[in-house]
Sequence to fold (516 residues):
Amino acid sequence: MSNVTNVLIVGVGGQGVVLASNILCEVAMRAGMDVKKSEIHGMSQRGGVVTSHVRFGDKVLSPLVMHGQADALLSFEAAEALRFAHEVKEGGVLMSSTQKIHPPTGQLKKKRVGLQYPEDAIEKLPDACKGRVVPIEAEAIALELGNPRLTNTILLGALSTGLDISDDIWTGTIRQMVPPKTIDLNLAAFERGKEVAYGAEKV
Amino acid sequence: MEDEAKIAGIPVEGKEWIPREGELDLNTVAISLKNAGLLDDEFPIPDAEAVIQRPPVLCAGCPHRGIYMALKKINADVYGDIGCYTLAALSPLKTLHTCFCMGASIGNAVGAKLAETNTKHPTTAVIGDGTFMHSGITGLIDAVTSNANITVVIVDNSITAMTGGQVNPQTGIDLMGNEVPKIDLEKVVEGVGVQKLIVLDTYDYNNAVDQLKEAVNFEGPAVVIARRPCALFPGKRKIDPYTVQEDVCTGCGNCFKIGCPAIFDSGNKTKRGLAIAHIEPTACTGCTLCQQVCKDEAIVKLSDLAKGKEVTA
Fold:
């Protein structure tokens, strides 16, 4: 059990969390590992929170990551990174897009909603998380590349720098799993994600 | 299981260590096992940061949104049923007032009307096409035979969306993909003996309000079929997104109130300090409902704006 890697991928419905976790699973399988995945996405197509647990290693017995035991948390949204920051274990890493998605109910009757959207979510992360925090301007990079839907691949690129899986497996899998018209863009997004993560490590 | 094991004479402990309510997640199981003396390690559940909730809402482009906006407009008491449309009970629409079980909506509405509930609001029931086929017809028969003065809104998206897009008797194919006879919703309603039937398009808000008024003013049971295919199933709708002209928006908030997950606070404020709306182009399907309630004609088609067209709503 000790060599199992726990990855938690979180975001908001429609951001591509499920596709990203499917790609990660496929990559881990092609790297010869045992893989298990579990998603919680019931209401998520309707603007709710999506979480996907991915575990891989020599032998994986359970698909769920125990609370506080994630080696890596990949978040597609700033407030969601804060919501799940405690799941990262000591020595783990939290990589989050700095993108903010305000829930549609947030504008209404703020007193009744209780909590307000944490505009400072990214700044709060180092205190909320036991692991290393890597904020990624994924939205800006995606727009620069020309398609806002590329954020999930950028984040996968960043995640890949922390995993011992060859780039050939990653790019081969992405090639097969993204819509054919977007292959080149996705591969470029993957590279940019890697660059950002490597850049952050040197800091 | 513990009781059965004990009856069988097997020594067993369970409820003493394992909680009987809440989710049995890994940490809870591990903590239970530790307390029972079977594990040595500590598995504390770390404290989580309290973050604003993200309750589910009707999808961007959901056909149910328009009919709920109209029901809200006419101040209807809405007896609800089970499906995606139950989400209208939540903020900000808050236009579904009961949810009991599949098929309960019509019976609840009939009962409330017969009990002479002290309300000036029109009594309505909202039920999906799938749920209506499943267990709504009996309720409608009851409404007809008791001549209850209610309006039954059948929200017909032609699919079972909440559970992932399964077929229903109106689809015309079975689970194996074979063609089977389609059930005609209008014929069922008329066959049951309903004298007032209106079919409307939920993307046309003003028309929906007018038609609903006509239905609730009818003496006796009326049925409104609010028809539009689901925004997600069987295929996602083609995207033709709209956008907010920030310099035109006065921050009236009408578009926020329809609870669309494609509409956000832009973070910018009007001179009076009100939040200016932003429409997320990747999420917007172009259903135009927000445009129809926008006071300022600030919401326009993104493609028109990009073309530099003279844009008037």
